[in-house]
Design goal:
Structural class: alpha/beta
Number of strands: 8
Strand order of the largest sheet: 1-3-2-4-5-6-7-8
Largest sheet: 8 strands, mixed
Radius of gyration: 17 Å
Number of helices: 12
Helix content: 40-55%
Length: about 280
């Protein structure tokens, strides 16, 4: 069973969360979703996360598989017409894979804190493999202890919103070794779509990045801004800029309708500091 949550009304946005996160974590974080919203936000717990069933194997947790899962959620909740796709980190990757698979259905892309990709991906894959080795050799408690030593958010964001790290660790405490293992293997075996496929995507894309986060480097966000023909990149380096993200997402998806597929895309303004 795949746990889903539908909130609000307006243009539909299918949204995916990050690795080891969930709908519940994003609700507590307040980073990407506002209430009330001008969008119909359709969110799901990825396999093995939150209230969804455990993943049967690592292949279900790879980003390309999550892209297909995202499209399945879209077909169920938006059987006709177009919809926006978005997500954070792993969810961002799933949205890109889904857009490559079904570009004619996607009206907008919202890509929050893109993960490491392409040339940088092997090093990140090794981190996931080391984490998996620790989990398998020593169990869940040493794994949790290691996670406490390496916070997941930029220092400036943790200082402004200390509850975020607590919420992350609380979400992680809901996992056991059996549920975590395929997630880590799936992440280790994943990457963003081929850059040449991304160059073909014509829909407007909003890229929301933040500074000082090795797991979500600005390099990936900048590369996506260059590859996607109609991309706008906003870079946050303080908490006030991040607090504006939910409204920016609403503004972006409810804004003027994008050009039809027969019209040439209008390039976005490129990178801008949002602080």
């Amino acid at each position: 069973m795949l746990n889903t949550l539908v909130q609000g009304s307006g243009p539909p946005l299918i949204w995916g969360h990050g690795l080891q996160a969930s709908i519940a974590f994003e609700q507590s974080s307040g980073l990407f979703h506002s209430s009330p919203s001008r969008l119909r936000r359709i969110r799901f717990d990825a396999p093995g996360h939150g209230q969804s069933d455990a993943a049967m194997d690592a292949s279900a947790c790879q980003w390309s598989s999550l892209g297909r899962t995202m499209l399945e959620v879209a077909r169920l909740h938006v059987p006709e017409g177009r919809f926006a796709l978005g997500g954070q980190s792993m969810g961002c990757a799933a949205a890109l894979h889904a857009a490559v698979m079904a570009p004619e259905r996607v009206s907008h892309l919202v890509l929050a804190t893109p993960p490491t990709a392409w040339a940088g991906r092997p090093a990140q894959a090794r981190k996931h493999q080391r984490a998996l080795g620790l989990l398998q050799r020593r169990g869940i408690e040493p794994f949790m202890a290691a996670n406490r030593q390496f916070p997941a958010f930029p220092e400036w964001l943790r200082a402004a919103r200390p509850h975020l790290e607590h919420a992350r660790l609380e979400a992680l405490a809901g996992f056991d070794a059996q549920r975590l293992s395929p997630l880590l293997l799936g992440a280790a075996g994943s990457d963003l779509p081929d850059p040449e496929r991304l160059r073909e995507l014509q829909m407007p894309a909003l890229i929301l990045a933040w500074s000082d986060d090795e797991t979500h480097p600005l390099l990936t966000a900048e590369q996506l801004a260059e590859l996607l023909p109609a991309a706008t990149l906003l870079i946050a380096s303080d908490a006030l800029a991040v607090e504006r993200w939910p409204e920016l997402i609403d503004d972006f998806v409810t804004g003027p309708s994008p050009a039809s597929p027969s019209e040439p895309p209008v390039p976005g303004p490129g990178a801008a500091r949002a602080d």
